[in-house]
Amino acid sequence: MDFKVVVVSQEEYDQWIEGMKNTSPEYTAESTSAQEGQELFQNSCINCHAIDASANNPIVGPNLADFGDRTKVAAIKNYSKEAIVDWIMDPASIKPGNGMLGAPYLQDNSIQEEDAEKIADFLMELKATDEPVESVKKFRENEAENN
Ligand code: HEC
């Protein structure tokens, strides 16, 4: 596992905190693809993943409220649409034995790659702030160059 810490300024942090307060379970996806992805997410993923920071119901998987601001997928892969699709299609190959392997969609193969791409478009829209804060952007650029 490869946890990274991104140091952000106080101002960026405050921005993020404010943004997190605005995340909502009723978020409406913007692009058509993301809207279809959101529907798929509601069917196959919402039981284990919340998409709002205020969710306090007991959930199994990580809260994805600001997933669009992340630098890593499952703390292993560099953040990209491709990495998200790979994770959705075959999480076992990325992290054997992880807690998502019991997901029903993996048992009945109800999610195809084109669905996973739509879900990825949706997840990438989930952000605390419209743009990732500057430090996160720089971090992603450096990671992309070094890998
Ligand atoms: C049975 C519960 C369950 C279901 C259903 C489920 N997940 Fe997960 N998911 C998990 C768990 C647990 C993890 C944490 C795995 C780990 O990193 O060890 C996870 C991790 C993730 C991550 C990585 C999160 C991060 O912090 O980087 C993403 C993205 C994700 N899931 C997306 C989805 C999508 C999309 C679906 C539906 C197609 C889905 N999950 C369905 C339990 C679930």
Provide the fold topology.
Layout: H1 10-21, H2 32-44, E1 72-73, E2 77-78, H3 81-89, H4 91-94, H5 104-108, H6 113-125, H7 134-146
Antiparallel strand pairs: 1-2
Helix pairs in contact: 2-6, 3-6
The structure holds heme C.
Keywords: Heme, Iron, Metal-binding
GO molecular function, one term: heme binding
Domain Cytochrome c: 32-127
Tell me about this structure.
This is Cytochrome c oxidase polypeptide II. Pfam families: Cytochrom_C (PF00034). InterPro entries: Cupredoxin (IPR008972), Cyt_c-like_dom (IPR009056), Cyt_c-like_dom_sf (IPR036909). GO terms for molecular function: electron transfer activity; heme binding; metal ion binding. This protein has 147 residues and is mostly helical. It has a single domain, classed as Cupredoxins -  blue copper proteins (Immunoglobulin-like, Sandwich). It has seven helices and two strands, in the order ααββααααα. It has a two-stranded antiparallel sheet with strand order 1-2. β1 and β2 form a beta hairpin. The radius of gyration is 15 Å and the shape is globular. The mean pLDDT is 89. Heme C binds next to α2, α3 and α6.
